[in-house]
Amino acid sequence: MNLLDLVSGGKVAALIGSEWRLSVKNFDVVNPANGETVAQVADMGAEDAREAIVAAERAGKAWRKVSAKERARLLKRWFDLVVVETEALARIMTLEQGKPLAEARGEVAYGASFIEFFGEESKRMAGEVLPAPDTSKRLLVTREPVGVVAAITPWNFPLAMITRKCAPALAAGCSVVIKPAEATPLTALALARLALQAGIPEGLISVVTCSSPAGVGDVLTTDSRVRKVSFTGSTEVGKYLLSQCAGTVKKTAMELGGNAPFIVFNDADLDAAVDGAIASKFRNAGQTCVCTNRFLVQADVYDAFLEKLVDRVRGLTVGSGLDNDVTVGPLINAAAVEKVQSHVNDGLFKGARLLVGGQAHELGGNFFAPTVMADVTADMLVASEETFGPLAAVFRFETEAEALELANDTPSGLAAYFYTRDYGRVFRTLEALEYGMVGVNEGLISTELAPFGGIKESGLGREGSHHGLDEFTELKYACLGGL
Ligand code: NAD
Question: Is the complex ipTM more than 0.90?
Answer without folding.
Answer: yes
